[in-house]
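Hi everyone,

Forwarding the result from last night's run.
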Amino acid sequence: MNTSGRTQLFSSVDKASLLNCPKVQLHDGTNHPCIGFGTYKVGFVPASASAAIESDADAAECVSNALECGYRFFECAQFYGNENEVGKAISKSGVPRKELFLCSKVWTTTIEQGPQAIRAQLDKTLSDLGTDYLDLYLIHWPVPGKHVDAYKTLEDLFNEGKLRGIGLSNYAVEDYIELKDSGMTIKPSVNQIEINPFLYRKNTIAFFDKEGVVLQSYRSLCNGKDFDNPTLVKIAQVHGKTAAQVLGRWCVQKGFVYMPKSVKKERMEENAMVFDFELTEHEVCKLDSLTTPESLRAFEDLYRKCVNRDTSKDGTMDGVKMDITVD
């Protein structure tokens, strides 16, 4: 069986399961859909993106397809460079705003520039997405010396009613402690980090779980690079599912917010078909054990590279925490 291909057609039942997907409750009582559509590299690839290549996909068309499939949570960002196209697709769809859950992130360059730049960027994001509020707005990376003040600006915007919730992305335990010790007045609702069986950072996950901060998982499907892993293949065969669906089910079953992305409608459908089967405890344990020391070292290297990315300190270790909780 081809574990990266589809094993069944997307039915009306599957669409209903996606439209009525389980929710993860945030600390303020908000119900966050457990699955969403990631828009990174959809129609536009940022110049400083890893493996930056041209995209021939049309962002608006991709988002329209995702909406047709039944996705209602959209994970967006200033850095992705396509929020205007996402907004066009949403407007064209006719889906009521109240049925959508929209999340965006403010990029490092804007974080470095300070409060007024962040406010201006939020106004642009709201305009591009065609809405007057966001369900979540996140700090994209904990820019050294800047992220604490940026988060305080998000707190102000929350209090002004432009944001229903605020949160973090790519925060290590030590970044969160720095923020908490600074006197934050609103606890972050989420921290968006890479989570999959090949980068399963148990101590970090346990820390944020104890803090009551929900984890959104990006690279849930490992960019498709590990679909041929023997453990994953075997589990997929047992369930008559694809490798992608097993990874997605693992994510949902663990209580993380699962955010797959694809520019192909058939993959969007495949990625969403995770609600009609369940992994056994033994299978979950097998998947939990796939993270290697090499994966953790690669994560640490990427963290050090990215916290200053695109800022005036890009390419330097200026202010970068060199001793973080890696696992």
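The domain at 12-225+254-264+289-306 is CATH 3.20.20.100 (TIM Barrel).

Cheers,
N.
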